[in-house]
Design a protein that fits this description.
Largest sheet: 7 strands, mixed
Number of helices: 10
Number of domains: 2
CATH architecture of the largest domain: Beta Barrel
Order of helices and strands: HHEHEEHEEHEEEHHEEHHEEHEE
Number of strands: 14
Structural class: alpha+beta
Shape: elongated
């Protein structure tokens, strides 16, 4: 499969904060209909096999009505998706479990929805309402002697919204104020606990061992510096390396996160990977027990020994009343 197709297919959420902007990615989706897209696919793929994978990009934006119905992905579609993930070296935990029904006139479609997106979709889109879908055709399987198309929903928005809500909360983005470091305006004041809480729905966590996110929730968080450091664990390093494959992040940027530092947010301990260029500045400018504002991004979570480990990366920091950056940070995944 062509590299540009792989990049598009595995964007779990297309939002500002990763290798490309949300607007740039969404422009790759051409307005069309599912019948038109599948007709083009069938015209160029004459294989009479149980599984047919696309060999070119089929990415469209279309408006459908959400029926409110869902069901488990069929065994044949699950086998198709599992093979696609394995062939492209993605973890089995990313395998979607459910598909949702949509209608267009008298036509009905069952489309695969990623597990991490599903709770937000159900919350934001009401049964019977129209929704704009950004979808990708992955291929087809043979069911009851006929082709059943495997179509993945990669993003969605309500017709009245100018663009997808982004952080999967339905809230508009908030830009920084005059206290924000120059170049870091997209980092929003909030807490690590807030991000963790908003993504801790048991319906999602019970279905997977890995969470990947295309929205990194760039945040300005106030924490307490402890001075403790340690090497990033191999399993957390593996999680960071997945950003390179899944989101086309520059591997030289990910390589900067070799060490993690311990911070306290209230009673909560957080070991956070920190850019290696920043560590000397932390040690020089801060004392143990001092409050500091971190410019951090959330890059997912992973279940380790039956406990969820939430992964945040630190791209810059700011002491109270400090108006200049340390000079060590590079701005994060979106700059």
């Amino acid at each position: 499969m062509k590299p540009h197709i792989l990049k598009a297919l595995m964007l779990l959420q297309v939002c500002v904060g990763l290798a490309a902007s949300q607007e740039d990615i969404l422009q790759q989706y051409s307005p069309s209909t599912i019948p038109s897209m599948t007709a083009r696919f069938l015209a160029t793929n004459k294989k009479n096999s149980d599984q047919v994978f696309v060999t070119q990009s089929y990415m469209i934006k279309t408006r459908l009505a959400y029926s409110g119905s869902s069901r488990s992905v069929s065994e044949k579609k699950r086998a198709f998706l599992a093979k696609w993930l394995k062939d492209n070296q993605y973890p089995e935990a990313m395998l979607p479990r459910d598909e949702y029904q949509f209608t267009e006139g008298d036509r009905s479609y069952w489309l695969v929805l990623q597990d991490i997106v599903a709770p937000h979709f159900v919350q934001e889109i009401k049964p019977g309402s129209a929704v704009d879908l950004y979808i990708i055709l992955l291929g087809s399987v043979k069911e009851d002697g006929n082709p059943a198309f495997v179509i993945l929903i990669n993003e969605f928005k309500r017709p009245e919204d100018e663009r997808p809500s982004g952080p999967r909360t339905g809230k508009p983005r908030v830009w920084g104020d005059e206290d924000t470091l120059l170049g870091y305006e997209r980092y929003v004041p909030r807490t690590l606990r807030e991000i963790i809480s908003s993504h801790s729905d048991p319906k999602t966590l019970n279905k997977t061992d890995v969470l990947m996110t295309g929205d990194t929730f760039p945040s300005r968080v106030k924490v307490t510096y402890t001075g403790s450091t340690r090497k990033v664990s191999p399993i957390k390093k593996q999680h960071l390396d997945m950003l390179v494959v899944s989101f086309d992040v520059d591997p030289t940027l990910i390589a900067k996160y070799e060490t993690e530092m311990l911070f306290m947010e209230g009673p909560d301990e957080h070991w956070l990977p920190v850019q290696k260029d920043l560590i000397p500045f932390f040690e020089k400018e801060l004392t143990k027990g001092e409050e500091v504002t971190l410019y951090a991004e959330w890059v997912g979570a992973r279940k380790i020994d039956d406990k969820w480990e939430w992964v945040f990366i630190v791209n810059e920091f700011q002491k109270p009343k400090r108006s200049t950056i340390t000079g060590g940070g590079w701005g994060g995944l979106g700059n």
